[in-house]
Amino acid sequence: MSLNRMSSRYQQQQGSMLVIAIFIIIVISLLIASLSRILSSTADSIANEVYSAKAYYAADSGMEYGIYRVLNGFVCADFDDKTPITGFDIRDVVGLENCVVAVSCQTITAGHNTQYYLRSTGTCDGGKMVAQHIVEAEVKL
Prior knowledge:
Elements: H1 2-13, H2 16-71, E1 99-110, E2 113-125, E3 130-140
Antiparallel strand pairs: 1-2, 2-3
């Protein structure tokens, strides 16, 4: 009788390991899917921050050059958004690849004072993302 009981218990337990194995495979698959989604969003976030920083530094470089031009006697008509800035090209600068800068200038005259309003826009194109920063300044002579 004991042999008969053991065989009936054995028959009742058949297939339970299959259910446990399938459950473990499903749980591990869900963990892998969520980890891959987290890693993908982290990589996109880092790339976004890098291109944003590059765009800021491109705009800042354009602003420095615009201030230099104004302080050396150039008038605002010499450079604007429509014409490229002569002598200032950042496309070959290491770290600022795929970035462009546009500097615009407005002359503000108040009485005997002349002020210049400069606006520098740095744009970096990273393929699937584009970052842009704008830096503004007023220069009073």
